[in-house]
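worker-3 :: picked Membrane-anchored protein
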Amino acid sequence: MKKLLNRVPEVTIYFWMIKILATTVGETAADFLAFTMNLGLGGTSYIMGSLLAIVLFNQFRLKRYVPVSYWLVVVLVSIVGTLITDRLVDELGVTLMTTNIVFSVALLVVFALWYKSEKTLAMHSINTTKRELYYWAAILLTFALGTSTGDYLAEASGLGYAQSALIFGAAIAAITIAYYYFRIDAVLAFWLAYILTRPFGASIGDLLSQPAKVGGLGWGTTGTSMVFLSIIASLVIYLSLKRKKPALTSLDRQE
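worker-3 :: tokens ->
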């Protein structure tokens, strides 16, 4: 299969910042469109699903990583992943425990097929179309699973949004410590953190947007979505400009 330049970003602090912001937007934007705009879960799913298909098509056309394209896909995948879980639970009556099990198994199957085919799950090796297909399938399932896990812990168990955010944040911190100090496998650490940042971001989104009577801070889905989208846009613009900035030559440095 033809190899391309890596079409996903390096895993830096900016990567994790935008990822968490995107997961928050996925939670609040889905609620904004479905309930504030009265599009309903079904109507919102069709619109966001169509937009995701369009931006994914463009993403696969690219020969290298382009920040705007990549992160637009992530934001839309976050929204669609949220909607998948919400529709299963709210419209079809599937329990959150069941969705947690189903999405966990589905994600493990994708990882197993991916590894069997490519012998790696590493982020820095997404340089073929097949690997990118596996990659986006896994990303979608992590968002759906993260939504389900976050809702289960914060709502179904009655723990609340703030406590849930603290638990998921502590778990991410534990993985970070295990990676830097105990040298656990980098790929394993990445995917564990990636999965957990979804419910962490979703819990933060719900904490900020939901009314005080249900344990939120009452910012509303509109305000929360706009604030986080603005921060994402600023970071993506910064990264895009940074990539275009020419590197200094030795002569330039001497001058």
